Amino acid sequence: MRAHLVFILAIILCIPAIGQVKIHSHNDYAHAQPFWEAYHQQAYSIEADVYVVGDSLMVAHNRKDITAGHSLEQMYLKPIAGLFAGNDHHVSADKQYTFQLMIDFKDTWDLVYPLLVKTLQPYLDCFDPKRNGKAVSIVISGNRLPDSAFHTLPSFIRLDGLPFRNYVSRDLRKVAMISDNFKTYSKWKGVGMLPEADKQKLNEVIENAHRQHKLVRFWGAPDTEATWRQLYELGADIINTDKVASCRQFFNKQK
Fold it and tell me: DSSP secondary-structure letter at 17?
């Protein structure tokens, strides 16, 4: 009996524990409750795509989908500022929780970046780590400046990096994470098991990013439980999903 119990305990100890999995709320603005669902599920990263319209950054996946009132400021910056005001300079009553706001530039860098910096100025107590150690991180994706210029950006701006880039140390410090298109490495549809050959290709990306001490995210993957679990088991640090609540519930059940 004792040997049997020891055997069971050994199996349990070999099963990796799942802690609070980092979730990226992909195209968050298109969800039923933009920002708030991801926030209440304690998403690690929340994504907003932006276009320049006059003197505003408007949130939409395509320019034709732009809707009046759906500005970055109204949908994200003001709600975040309100949370800081109501939680003693923290974004949440849970003082350990913060997140990154990923802003995907759909227009050119030269067009969007100056307007983003201007738009952020009244809110820097919420977004600049030099002013607030619990600041929400701003991470830029999409159209970026050259890798060699990353280090020139201010303290409140970081970037979404790409795999297998030879970033020098001063530019690498500005990289918040490494992201790439899952479909570059696999045609798997998210049902059954991920093919071993595809696992090897994905693992190369993960290992390369981890050697740079960066987190990894794959976008464009099938948005299924099988995908979430297998990417997590491979070592992908951030799970990209349009189903934030379902993804959180799935991983909570695995604990």
Answer: P
Query: Is the pLDDT at 17 greater than 90, yes or no?
Result: no
What SS3 class is residue 72?
helix
β-strand partners of 146: none
Render pLDDT for 160-215 as a digit per residue (tens, 0 to 9): 999 999 999 999 999 999 999 999 999 999 999 999 999 999 999 999 999 999 99
Pairing verdict, β 56-59 and 45-53: antiparallel
What's the rounded Cα separation, in Å, for the pair 175 and 150? Answer: 8
Cα distance between residue 138 and residue 147, in whole Å:
17
User: 3-class secondary structure for 146-202?
Assistant: CHHHHHHCCCCCEEEECCCCCCCHHHHCCEEEEEEEHHHCCCCCCCCCCCHHHHHHH
The two three-digit tokens of residue 92, written as one number: 């949440």
Domains of the chain are: 19-253 (3.20.20.190)
Residue 140, SS3 per DSSP: strand
Please tell me the pTM assigned to this model.
0.92
List of residues 6+ apart from 92 with CB closer than 8 A: 39, 42, 83, 98
Longest dimension (CA), the chain: 75
